[in-house]
């Protein structure tokens, strides 16, 4: 080992504080790990901050508007999103839940980083009140409509092991599954 390596590791004793941000691999349908139900976040520490940074970095690189921890094989209840035009409004939700404010369903074309290449119309309640905690554990609430409402509901579904393809007709889902399985075999 080189001297420089020794001095480096001896100086930085707490690795989690200097861990550089990292791109995490996104699981793809029909991976059974996408069906796991995430457990609540109970510890608000530096490791959680690293995970949130990684989720944002992974989401922005993949050009997604949201990402749930489940998608990177972390089965804890947290999600990130940024539905802004300029990609300058990152929002993190820890232990999120929602109440429906407006039952009226609105249809939206949905895609998913875990179901790459497929876009289908899904109907969801138009307005919801989201309750969550921030990165420090502080509780907050927001009302969401439009794309924010759609996205938050899509992400919370991930934490419960659900995917947007579950809302599609029983004819469409197996077709999507088959196509993705073929692609996975090709790239394996
Ligand atoms: O990038 C995404 N776009 C999107 C479009 C419509 C409805 C939901 C979404 S979320 C998706 C990213 C993703 O897979 N999040 O889980
Ligand atoms: Ni998704």
Could you explain how this protein is built, in words?
This protein has helices at residues 3-11, 15-18, 46-61, 146-159, 172-187, and strands spanning 66-68, 78-81, 91-110, 120-133, 139-145. The radius of gyration is 18 Å and the shape is globular. The chain contains five helices and five strands. The protein starts with a helix and ends with a helix. Strand 4 (120-133) and strand 5 (139-145) form a beta hairpin. The chain has a five-stranded antiparallel sheet with strand order 1-2-3-4-5, with helices on both faces. It has 188 residues and is α+β, with helices and mostly antiparallel strands. Residues 1-13 have low confidence and may be disordered. The structure holds ligand GNR and nickel (II) ion. Ligand GNR binds next to strand 1, strand 3 and helix 4.
Summarize the structure.
This protein has five helices and five strands; from the N terminus they run H-H-H-E-E-E-E-E-H-H.
Main features:
single chain, 188 residues, alpha+beta, five-stranded antiparallel beta sheet, 5 strands, globular, disordered N terminus, binds ligand GNR, binds nickel (II) ion
